[in-house]
Amino acid sequence: MDETRGKPAEGLDDTSGGRNLGSLRDILAELEAKGELRKVSKATDIRHIASLVDQSETALLFTNVMGYDIPVVSGVMNSRQRLAIAMGCEFSEIEALLRRGLDYPIPPVTIDAKGLHQTVQEGEAVDLFNLPVPIFAALDGGPMITAGVILAHDEEFGFNAGVYRLLIKDRNTTGIDIVTPNNLRKFADQAFAKGEALPISINIGNHPAELIASTFKAAAGVDEMEIAGGMRGAAVELAPCKTIDMPFIANSEIVLEAEILPTGWTRPEGRFGEFTRLMGGLHWNPLVRVHAISMRPEPIYYALHMPWENIWPSGPIYESAVRRVLHEAGVQVTAVNVTPGGCCHWHTIAAIKPLPGDGKNAILAMLSVADMKHVVVVDEDIDVFDGTDVEWAIATRVQADKDVIIISGARSKPLDPSLPPTPGRIPTTAKMGIDATIPEDVPRERFERLSYAFADEIKLEEVLGDGPAKTPAPTVSDAEVTALASEIRDLITKRPMYFLDLSKKFADRGFPMLSRAIGRLHENEELWQDKLGQLCLKGSEFGAKQD
Question: Where are the alpha helices (H) located in 268-398, listed in sequence order?
Answer without folding.
Answer: 308-328, 358-367, 387-397
